[in-house]
Write a structure and sequence with these properties.
Number of helices: 14
CATH topology of the largest domain: Rossmann fold
Helix content: 40-55%
Radius of gyration: 20 Å
Number of strands: 12
Number of domains: 2
CATH class of the largest domain: Alpha Beta
Order of helices and strands: HHEEEHEHEHHEHEEHEHEEHEHHHH
Largest sheet: 7 strands, mixed
Strand order of the largest sheet: 9-8-7-6-10-11-12
Strand content: 15-25%
CATH superfamily of the largest domain: NAD(P)-binding Rossmann-like Domain
Bound molecules: nicotinamide-adenine-dinucleotide
C-alpha cells in the first residue's frame, strides 16, 4: 500500500462520508436527508465461537451493516479478512447503497465482514465459521430484508454453506437469501465474471467518449483474484487490450509485449501467486500503479492510490474494480492531471447487478441463458455510465462526484417519497 501524507485520512468510512458531503453540496441536499445518508440505518456486531480442527475453540468478531433500504432490501457482500474493521464494513455498505442506485436496481446497500484469516483455516473450519455467522445474522437477513453475496476471500462454496444454514433456520429453502451461489443451488449464469465484465463494458463506453482505441491499449491490473483475473481475460476478449502487468498480495509481474492471462492464471493456481511467472520481470505493487499504461485497473483493496503516489499515476483511465482504492486527496490530483477515473461503485457494479438478476431468477424459479444475462448487464452498465458522464459534463465535476450526484439524488428521492424526512 502507498504511504499517505500525515494529514490524509485513510479511514474508509470517513472517506465515504467526505465523498457524500461533496455531492450533497452540489445537490443542495436538505440537512436532514444529508444527515440520514451519512450514517448506517442499522448494524449488528456478532461474536462467533468456532470449533477448530485441533479441538480448541476460537472466537471471531463479525459485522453486518445495513446502510440504507429506502429503495429496496439491502444488498452487499461478506468479507473474510484479517484486517476487517467496522469502519471498512460501514464504508462498503455506504458504497453498496450508491452502487445499487447508480445502476438503478431496486435495492439498498449493506455489507458484512468477519475478522479472520481464511488462508490459515481449513475448509472444515471455514464451513463452521460461515454457518456460525449465519446463525447470528440470520435474524436480520432474508429475501425481503437483506441479501448477502461473496466479497474478498469468500466464494460460491461459502455462499452455499450459508444458504444451507439459513434453510435450517427457516425450515425451508430460500435460495434468494444469498447470491453468488453455485449454479446447482440457484446461482445465476454469468455471476462469476460479472464484476469484471461490467467494468469492461464501462471502459468500452468511456473509451468511446475519450476517443481511445481499446484494441491494443495497454492494461495493468493490481490484484489477481476474482475481479482481477476476469479483468485480464475479458480485457483481452472484449476490448482487445494487452495486459502488461498484474499483481497479487505477494508481488507483481511485468511484460512489455503482453502477458497471456490464461497462462498467468494457471501459474497462480499451481504456485499460489503470479510471482515467478516465466518470461516476466518482477514488479512491486507500488510500481505497477505508476506504469505508463492506457488503462490501470485497481482490483485488490482500498487506499492504494493516495496523495503520495497520485502525482505519479500515468494511466489515461483508472478503472476501479476494487472498492475504495483512491483517497479523496488522490482523487483531486488525478482530476487535475487528467486521469479519467471510472469510480468503484460505477465500475464494479456488474457484480451486484447480476446478483440482482440472480435474486429475480430465484424469485421466479426460472433461469436465464448466459446471453440474456450478458445483454441485460450490458444495458444496465451502459446506461449507468452515460448517466454519470452526463452529470459530470453538466456540473463540470469529476466522475466520482458525478456518480454520487446521480446515486444520492435517487436515494434522496426515495427517502422523501417515503416520508422519512
Ligand atoms: P479476491 O479475494 O478474489 O482477490 C483479491 C486479490 O487481491 C487477490 O489476488 C489478493 O492476492 C490481492 N491482494 C490482496 N492484498 C493485496 C495487496 N496489498 N496488493 C496487491 N494485491 C493484493 O477478491 P475479489 O472478489 O477479486 O475483490 C477484489 C476487489 O474487488 C475488492 O475491493 C472487492 O471489494 C471488489 N469487488 C469485488 C466484487 C466481486 O464480485 N468479486 C464486486 C465488487 C467489488
Amino acid at each position: 500500500m502507498a504511504e499517505a501524507t500525515t494529514q490524509e485520512t485513510l479511514n474508509p468510512f470517513a472517506i465515504a462520508q467526505a465523498q457524500l458531503d461533496k455531492a450533497a453540496e452540489i445537490l443542495h441536499l436538505e440537512p436532514a436527508v444529508h444527515a440520514l445518508l451519512r450514517e448506517p440505518i442499522r448494524e449488528l456486531h456478532v461474536t462467533l465461537p468456532v470449533k477448530m480442527d485441533d479441538g480448541t475453540t476460537k472466537v471471531f468478531k463479525g459485522f453486518r451493516v445495513q446502510y440504507n433500504d429506502a429503495r429496496g432490501p439491502t444488498k452487499g457482500g461478506i468479507r473474510f479478512h484479517p484486517d476487517e474493521t467496522i469502519d471498512t464494513v460501514r464504508a462498503l455498505a455506504a458504497w453498496m447503497t450508491w452502487k445499487t442506485a447508480v445502476v438503478d436496481i431496486p435495492l439498498g446497500g449493506a455489507k458484512g465482514g468477519v475478522i479472520c484469516n481464511p488462508k490459515e483455516m481449513s475448509p472444515a473450519e471455514l464451513e463452521r465459521l460461515s454457518r456460525a455467522y449465519i446463525r447470528q445474522v440470520g435474524r436480520i437477513i432474508g429475501l425481503e430484508k437483506d441479501v448477502p453475496a461473496p466479497d474478498v476471500y469468500t466464494n460460491p462454496q461459502i455462499m452455499a454453506w450459508m444458504a444451507d444454514e439459513y434453510a435450517f433456520l427457516k425450515g425451508y429453502n430460500e435460495f434468494g437469501v444469498i447470491t453468488g451461489k453455485p449454479l446447482a443451488l440457484g446461482g445465476s449464469k454469468g455471476r462469476n465474471d460479472a464484476t469484471a465484465r461490467g467494468g469492461m463494458y464501462v471502459i468500452r463506453e468511456a473509451a468511446k467518449v475519450l476517443g481511445i482505441e481499446t484494441s491494443g491499449a495497454t492494461m495493468a491490473i493490481q490484484g489477481f483474484g476474482n475481479a482481477g483475473q476476469y479483468a485480464a481475460t475479458l480485457g483481452r476478449e472484449l476490448l482487445g487490450t494487452v495486459i502488461v502487468a498484474v499483481s497479487d498480495s505477494k508481488g507483481g509481474i511485468y511484460k512489455a509485449d503482453g502477458l497471456d492471462p490464461d497462462a498467468v492464471i494457471r501459474h497462480k493456481q499451481e504456485t499460489g501467486s503470479v510471482v515467478g511467472f516465466p518470461g516476466a520481470e518482477p514488479i512491486s505493487n507500488a510500481e505497477l500503479l505508476e506504469l505508463e499504461v492506457d488503462i490501470l485497473v485497481p482490483a485488490a483493496l482500498e487506499n492504494v492510490i493516495t496523495a503520495a503516489n497520485a502525482p505519479n499515476i500515468k494511466a489515461r483511465i483508472s478503472a476501479e474494480l476494487a472498492n475504495g482504492p483512491t483517497t479523496p486527496e488522490a482523487d483531486e490530483i488525478l482530476w487535475k492531471n487528467g486521469v479519467y477515473v471510472l469510480p468503484d461503485f460505477l465500475c464494479n457494479a456488474g457484480g451486484v447487478t447480476v446478483s440482482y438478476f440472480e435474486m429475480v431468477q430465484n424469485a421466479y424459479d426460472y433461469y436465464w441463458d448466459l446471453e440474456t444475462v450478458h445483454e441485460r448487464l450490458d444495458r444496465k452498465m451502459t446506461a449507468a455510465f452515460h448517466a454519470v458522464h452526463e452529470a459530470a459534463q453538466r456540473f463540470d465535476i469529476d466522475n466520482r462526484t458525478a456518480a454520487y450526484v446521480v446515486a444520492v439524488d435517487r436515494v434522496a428521492e426515495a427517502v422523501r417519497l417515503r416520508g422519512w424526512v
